TrEMBL record:
One of its GO terms (cellular component) is cytoplasm. Belongs to the thiamine-phosphate synthase family. It comes from Mizugakiibacter sediminis. InterPro entries: Aldolase_TIM, ThiamineP_synth_sf, ThiamineP_synth_TenI, TMP_synthase. This is Thiamine-phosphate synthase. Its EC number is 2.5.1.3. SUPFAM superfamilies: Thiamin phosphate synthase.
């Protein structure tokens, strides 16, 4: 236990170092590191710097190092495609209290996507909020994002983990399937996303899921994300059912006042708790 605390202390110190050195694209909010971050944590332990007092034993093969990569709850704001004011809109969502940000841009404009993803990664690092890139593992790596979100048409978790490292946040779409959620949890997903829970103008053809699925998925022990047509007015029951994060596009980035829209979700989380099973 004492050794575990030493590891955690060293990790905190190394996190600051890694962010300061620009080694860590995301960070804060309970996220623990990229590959560089984990290496930095270990070097702190080995060199005896900071408050580290004793060298920790090497982690068991396959064991998760230190704390989970994602903890907490709140709004998971997802960008809504090309827009001239992307950075300002993203900053407003963070000002409003978004706990996670996803860069989702389905265009094939590689140079613009790279430039935007890098700018968002810097913004998020400054705010201590993880940036997740949708679909594109290579873009997440090139931008220095905290992680990637993968659906059924995207790369496998193992491929993303190999490319992004042990500290990356890898989220996975489970749609309406608990069986798929079990598989993805076993494959190393850091959060499980379900939905769509409501009709979505952003993705009209999205498969639908029912809130009871969230209640069942709690047993998997990973953070749960709900997506699809979510607003501050309909999101409460999803939190009560077990959603740690509400992933939202239109009700945040389609709002005239993005900051105020994000704030309404932050307020919803502040006043809503999960129901016990
Ligand atoms: C948090 C979150 N959950 C689900 C999705 C959807 O992913 P996917 O099914 O791959 O669909 P696209 O977003 O790629 O159209 C998501 N992006 N984020
Ligand atoms: C990407 C995605 N996957 C299922 S629904 C959806 C879109 C969510 O956007 P909105 O919050 O605008 O319904
Ligand atoms: Mg996808």
């Amino acid at each position: 236990m004492a050794e575990r605390l030493v590891v955690d202390e060293a990790a905190d110190h190394a996190h600051e170092l890694a962010v300061g050195l620009g080694l860590h694209g995301g960070g804060g909010g309970g996220v623990h590191g990229s590959g560089a971050y984990v290496e930095a944590a270990n070097s702190v332990i080995v060199s005896g710097r900071g408050r580290a007092r004793k060298r920790a034993p090497p982690p068991r093969r396959g064991a998760r190092l230190m704390r989970p990569r994602l903890s907490g709850r709140g709004l998971y704001a997802i960008t809504d495609g090309p827009r001239a004011d992307l950075l300002d809109a993203a900053a407003a969502a963070l000002d409003g209290g978004a706990a996670l940000l996803q860069y989702r841009d389905k265009t094939a404009d590689g140079p613009r996507r790279l430039q935007e993803a890098r700018a968002l990664a810097r913004l998020c690092a400054d705010r201590g909020v993880p940036l997740i890139v949708n679909d594109d593992v290579a873009l997440a790596a090139a931008a220095g994002a905290a992680g990637v979100h993968l659906g059924e048409e995207d790369a496998a978790i193992a491929e993303a983990r190999a490319r992004l490292g042990d500290g990356a946040i890898i989220g996975a779409s489970c749609y309406d399937s608990l069986a798929r959620a079990r598989q993805l949890a076993a494959a190393g997903a850091d959060y499980l996303a379900f939905g769509a829970f409501f009709p979505s103008g952003t993705k009209p053809g999205a498969r639908r899921a029912a809130p009871a699925l969230l209640r069942e998925a709690r047993a998997l022990g990973l953070p749960l994300v709900a997506i699809g047509g979510i607003t501050p007015d309909n999101g409460g029951p999803l939190i009560e059912a077990g959603a740690d994060y509400l992933a939202v596009i239109a009700a945040v980035f389609g709002a005239a006042d993005v900051r105020a829209a994000a704030r309404r979700f932050a307020d919803l989380f502040a006043r809503t708790q999960p129901h016990s099973p």
